[in-house]
Each structure stands twice: as C-alpha cells, then as structure tokens.
Amino acid sequence: MDMRVFINIFFLLIMITSIGFSGILVANSQVYATQAIWRDYKNMKDLIKAIKNGDKDDDNMDWDKFKNSAVYKNEDKNVRDCIDFANKVGEKLGDYEVVRCFKNANYFSEKYSSDKGNQNQSDVKQQQDDKQIQNQSDVSQTNPESQGDNSGNNCDSSYPDVCITTNSAKLTCLDIPYRNFKVLAPDPHEFDSDGDSIGCES
Fold it and tell me: 199: which strand partners?
C-alpha cells in the first residue's frame, strides 16, 4: 500500500475518533448543565433572577442533586419546605415551581388547600342536587284545578289534596313545595305538627 494512502487513512480515523469524542463530551456537558442549573450560584436569589431572565431553564430538575446544593441549603426553611412540597405533589420539580416558592413560600399549600376546598364545595352541591332530585321524584304536585283528586299512582292517602308517594323517604315541610293542605291520619311524615288536620301551615 502506498505510504500516502496509509497516512491519509490514519489521519481520517483520528479525525473521526476526535469528532465522536467531542460529540459525547458536548452531550454530557449539556445534560449536566440542564440537570444542574444551580451549580453556578450560591444563593437562590441569583438563580431565580437567571431563570426569570431565561438564562436557566429546567422543567425536570434532579431533586436529589438540588436538595444537596448550596443554593437550596442556604435558603430560608419556609422556601425549602415549599419546594419539598412541590416536589412531592408534582410528577417532577420544575424551575418555575422553585420561582413560585421563592416569591411565596405558601403558594402550593394555599393552592392545594383551595383546590380541596373547591372539591368539598362541589361535593356538597352535588349531594344537595341529588337530594333535590330524590325529593322531586318522591313528591309530585297535583294540578291546582284537580286538588282533592289524589288518585295518582302510589299517592299517600294521608294527604288527599297533594300527591306524596307512599314509598318516599321521611320528609319534612322544607322538602316539599306544598302549604296548608289537608292531612288525615296516620300522617307518616308528621306534616300536621299541631293536629289540626292542616299540613305545613304557612
């Protein structure tokens, strides 16, 4: 083989190897930079400023490394607790969560407390709606022109002027729209509390 060809092949192999190694080094340095956006800082204030300016960005911060950093350890306990909480409730810790905790250490506790309160209110409203639907199915008002005709299916004979189903759960006057209607014994819902044969007197 010609010596010049051999030398060219040799240099070509060296160049390919160098390019491959440099690519690996660049990729590793980028990964390190992404996972350690805090490494150039000793306090949270400077890191937050860099994140807000767009100089640093990481939506999936390495929690184990971050919690051992000087930036985290030198920060106020309330802010650290907020970041701990954000890390626990989220699938991953993002730089935006760190910013929120730095601005308001109660941000996530207030957010999740508010969300829970809204859920509780929603549950109560659903229960009220369910009860109202049940009451409407238990109580069906007769036509005003045909009051006194309590011939509807399953109407309780104790209340001849209105139709309250015999299979309804225990009701009170607050559960029904009727007032001042005729009540006969045995009055299972006790609408006639004073025994004058008039139910739910207004």
Answer: 181
Distances (CA, A) of 195 to 127, 178, 181, 187: 33, 17, 13, 10
Q: What is the C-alpha to C-alpha distance for residues 199 and 159, in angstroms, rounded to an integer? A: 9
Structural contact between residues 199 and 182, judged by C-beta atoms closer than 8 angstroms: yes
Look up residue 177 and give its two tokens: 């729209």
Which amino acid, 75?
A: E
| Predicted confidence (pLDDT) per residue in 176-198, tens digit | 888 999 999 999 999 998 888 99
Alpha carbons 193 and 202: distance in angstroms, whole number: 12
Q: How far apart are CA 71 and CA 40, in angstroms?
A: 9
Structure tokens at 128: 């009220």
| Look-up of token digits 């626990």 | 88
Contact call for residues 112 and 86 (beta carbons, < 8 A) = no
d(CA 105, CA 98): 10
Residue spans of alpha helices (H) in the chain = 3-35, 44-52, 63-66, 70-73, 77-89, 95-103, 107-138
Please report how many Cα atoms fall inside a 13 Å half-sphere around the Cα of residue 26, on the Cβ side: 6
pTM (whole model) above 0.70: no
Which tokens belong to 153? 């299916």
